[in-house]
Amino acid sequence: MHKMIWAMAGLLAVATAPAWASGPNAEQIAARTAAVAKENSGLNQLDRRDGGHARLGATANATTATGDPVPPFANSYRAYPPSCLADPLPFDFQGPRYQRTVNLATYNSQNNAFSNENVTITVWRVPCSGPGNVSPNSATLIGIDRSTATEGTEPYTLFPAVRITQGNNSLKLVRIAAEPNTVIAHVSADTPVIFSQSFVLENFPSNSTNTALWDFDNAFTITFYNGYTTDTGQALSIPAYVPTQGNYPNAYLPLPITGYLTGNWYDPNKGGEGMTVQVFELPGDRTNYLFTFALFTYDSSGLPYWLFGGATVPAGARGQLTVPTTFSPGGTFLGGATNPNASQTWGTVSFNFHDCGLVNLTFNKTTTAAGTPGTTGQSAQRSWTRLIGTNVLSTNGISCE
């Protein structure tokens, strides 16, 4: 899948064949086995299972004093907002990609022999932020692309040891996962890469000096090792993430409408008025969401007045969403409407989510019913923010940006 897309990119750098390119000898294989074991031991020491996470303090404990699981909290080591990626990893190549040919070790289970293979390694970024974000961020992906002749065959490629250099942190461990939004999952060295595959760069939940809290939006160098004694590494330099409308157009589009936008929205300048937005998955439907809202406002006499709306939204939809809007006349306190089937059309409300903390609204009243607020045939536009404590971007750790 990857090779068809990347074939047009061209290589930014070409690797020089290492000394063992003609095939390793017994001594090199023995040394490599020890190097791989050491690599994977280092990776495992950084995940929560082997105590790396325990260094973070009591909040990292798996259970409370009563033995019950602790409440979920946001992963403070995450490299990108969870709203940016979902499984499966996207193949979004709208922006720059950074590539080189890398010679990786291979293994043939039929004759227990090690060899090597040239693959194309590509690093690219997926924009996370909405337009105008003062601190734009992205998720950084890496792809290992086998050639057409070797795809799906033995000898298969072995996942290399990987190091990151950034700032004062030189050649330290990095967590690489095959699935986004994980906390401790990582790909171990020598994991078979039988088919071309993508991975996402993450941070370990550890403050060990063997790794670092990487900021993949800044420039860094990623280096790949096969573990042989003569292997000095094959490096690829990645510049800082600087989105423009030309190189990352999605960074300048409204956010996709997903459940991450669920919450309470209001105008800070108008107390007592607000709106609840909810976005639901539809059972058995993988292509659409259900978007609903309830607007709590006032009529011309200052009495509370509610508007309701709902619409089906295609998954991944961006831009303005126009929702048919209704109102229910009559009703008594705790008694419901005097005629619960008498909901009437008020007009429409259009939503444009600038980012996870700002929505632009357009209200269009079409009804001529007496006592309904707003001016029929005229539009009113507002910009509201999301109310979540002191942080408009996070609800119970479900972060969005």
Q: Would you mind describing this structure in some detail?
A:
- The strands form four sheets. Strands 1, 2, 3, 4, 5, 8, 9 and 10 form an eight-stranded mixed β-sheet that branches. An eight-stranded antiparallel barrel has the order 13-14-15-16-17-18-19-20.
- A hairpin with a 2-residue loop joins strand 18 (344-355) and strand 19 (358-365).
- The protein has two domains: 2-251, no CATH class; 259-399.
- It contains two helices and 22 strands.
- It has helices spanning 2-6, 26-45, and strands at 13-14, 97-108, 113-127, 138-145, 156-158, 161-166, 169-173, 175-177, 192-193, 197-202, 220-225, 234-238, 263-266, 274-282, 285-298, 304-314, 321-327, 344-355, 358-365, 379-387, 394-395, 398-399.
- It has 401 residues and is mainly beta.
- The model is unreliable at 3-17 and 49-61 (pLDDT under 50).
Task: Please give a handful of descriptors for the protein shown.
mainly beta, 2 helices, 2 domains, single chain, 8-stranded mixed β-sheet, 8-stranded antiparallel β-barrel
Helix content: under 10%
| Shape call | elongated
- Characterize the main sheet: 8 strands, mixed
Work out the count of structural domains: 2
Q: Treating each run of at least 4 consecutive H or I residues as one helix, how many helices?
A: 2
Question: Kindly, what is the distance between the CA atoms of the first and last residues, rounded to a whole number of angstroms?
Answer: 29 Å
Please provide the count of β strands.
Answer: 22
Portion of residues in beta strands equals 35-45%
Order of helices and strands: HEHEEEEEEEEEEEEEEEEEEEEE
**Alpha-carbon Rg, integer:** 27 Å
Low-confidence runs: 3-17, 49-61
Helix-strand makeup class: mainly beta
Mean pLDDT: 82
